[in-house]
Amino acid sequence: MSAPTLVAHGIRCLGVLGAGQMGMGIAMVSAVRAKVPVLIYDRSPEQVKKGLSLMDKLLDKDVNKGRLTTEQAKEAKERVEVVGAEAALKGLRDVDMVVEAVSENLQLKQAIFASLAAELRPDAILATNTSSISITKIAASAIPEGLKASSEEGKKAASRVVGLHFFNPVPVMKLVELISALQTSQETLDRARSFAIACGKEVTVSKDVPGFVSNALLMPFLNEAIMHLEKVGFNLIYHISYQVMELMTNKGIATRDDIDTTLKLGMNHPMGPLQLADFIGLDTCLAIQNTLYQGTGDSKYRPAVLLERMVDAGWLGKKSGKGFYDYN
Ligand code: 3HC
């Protein structure tokens, strides 16, 4: 198969929705590598403040390490602007592409895409950084009410939605997974691919199946590692009742450190699966695992009970200070 021709992405201004670790990372590589102005919106001003200060720190480090000049870092910082709460999604009205990076919740994403479709120009690309949710479902929500999905206008409205899946930490990981909804046009795919390349990323393509290629392979591995830990005398869950422990699968094969060290030293993984799950966020891992479970109906994807309990407890990994490891 011949390599796809690289078309001009034509993105003169990017919108990013969600200032969490993924959204800020996407904003940063877009400003630094693709050199486009970025408008970022998050309904939590504190989250934006936190995200901007992390980006500043990362850019300063790039300067100290000689990867960027002071001038380049300053230009990149100046390219990133925050949209205020009053303007909200209306503040993204003039962007050429938006990348949505809010939490893994279908209803939330559907509501957002319905609003984006109403606010943005009809030629703007609506990309989602979802880790596992159906791009086809999200694209259907970009069709204005009253239009039939099978009508020419309905098909056109959904054709600008695409999956653009970045990896954490975005400034470091070299991959972007490109996912076409059933409705996505070739032009949308080509422009989204070109933009990811302009951000310095290599692009792989996956069909719109639960978890795509990346998370359909990664999440069962992380979930299995958590099942291997269940029932071991694990100090973080010592106060979970005996009954709850009984509900857990009867594995308990190794300790946290033995599981992670096995994969790090035995397979040369940069971090063990339990540390990686903490790093991704246990709520995100659970949401993806549930999408795989419900989307396929296959019991092999059942989320580990311990993963569910940790999310119930609010122990979401690195971002909350506690997960399989303690970060305080
Ligand atoms: N943001 C930005 N940069 C970061 C970072 C972060 N959160 N964490 C680490 N880095 C940088 C470090 O600052 C360092 O940069 P430097 O060269 O300027 O010093 C560089 O990454 C390497 O870091 P370290 O030397 O401190 O540590 P490591 O060698 O352990 O590397 C790592 C850190 C690159 C994160 C490595 O551990 C790794 O590759 N881990 C696996 C990450 C992974 O698998 N990500 C994919 C998750 S799945 C996903 O995102 C999909 C989603 O849908 C769930």
From TrEMBL:
<feature type="binding site">
    <location>
        <position position="168"/>
    </location>
    <ligand>
        <name>NAD(+)</name>
    </ligand>
</feature>
<feature type="binding site">
    <location>
        <position position="109"/>
    </location>
    <ligand>
        <name>NAD(+)</name>
    </ligand>
</feature>
<keyword id="KW-0520">NAD</keyword>
<dbReference type="InterPro" id="IPR013328">
    <property type="entry name" value="6PGD_dom2"/>
</dbReference>
<dbReference type="InterPro" id="IPR022694">
    <property type="entry name" value="3-OHacyl-CoA_DH"/>
</dbReference>
<dbReference type="InterPro" id="IPR006176">
    <property type="entry name" value="3-OHacyl-CoA_DH_NAD-bd"/>
</dbReference>
<dbReference type="InterPro" id="IPR006108">
    <property type="entry name" value="3HC_DH_C"/>
</dbReference>
<feature type="binding site">
    <location>
        <begin position="18"/>
        <end position="23"/>
    </location>
    <ligand>
        <name>NAD(+)</name>
    </ligand>
</feature>
<dbReference type="GO" id="GO:0070403">
    <property type="term" value="F:NAD+ binding"/>
</dbReference>
<dbReference type="GO" id="GO:0006631">
    <property type="term" value="P:fatty acid metabolic process"/>
</dbReference>
<feature type="domain" description="3-hydroxyacyl-CoA dehydrogenase NAD binding">
    <location>
        <begin position="15"/>
        <end position="208"/>
    </location>
</feature>
<comment type="pathway">
    <text>Lipid metabolism; fatty acid beta-oxidation.</text>
</comment>
<feature type="binding site">
    <location>
        <position position="319"/>
    </location>
    <ligand>
        <name>NAD(+)</name>
    </ligand>
</feature>
<dbReference type="GO" id="GO:0016616">
    <property type="term" value="F:oxidoreductase activity, acting on the CH-OH group of donors, NAD or NADP as acceptor"/>
</dbReference>
<dbReference type="Pfam" id="PF00725">
    <property type="entry name" value="3HCDH"/>
</dbReference>
<comment type="similarity">
    <text>Belongs to the 3-hydroxyacyl-CoA dehydrogenase family.</text>
</comment>
<dbReference type="InterPro" id="IPR036291">
    <property type="entry name" value="NAD(P)-bd_dom_sf"/>
</dbReference>
<feature type="binding site">
    <location>
        <position position="42"/>
    </location>
    <ligand>
        <name>NAD(+)</name>
    </ligand>
</feature>
<feature type="binding site">
    <location>
        <position position="104"/>
    </location>
    <ligand>
        <name>NAD(+)</name>
    </ligand>
</feature>
<feature type="site" description="Important for catalytic activity">
    <location>
        <position position="165"/>
    </location>
</feature>
<protein>
    <recommendedName>
        <fullName>3-hydroxybutyryl-CoA dehydrogenase</fullName>
    </recommendedName>
</protein>
<feature type="domain" description="3-hydroxyacyl-CoA dehydrogenase C-terminal">
    <location>
        <begin position="248"/>
        <end position="327"/>
    </location>
</feature>
<dbReference type="Pfam" id="PF02737">
    <property type="entry name" value="3HCDH_N"/>
</dbReference>
<feature type="binding site">
    <location>
        <position position="131"/>
    </location>
    <ligand>
        <name>NAD(+)</name>
    </ligand>
</feature>
<dbReference type="InterPro" id="IPR008927">
    <property type="entry name" value="6-PGluconate_DH-like_C_sf"/>
</dbReference>
<keyword id="KW-0560">Oxidoreductase</keyword>
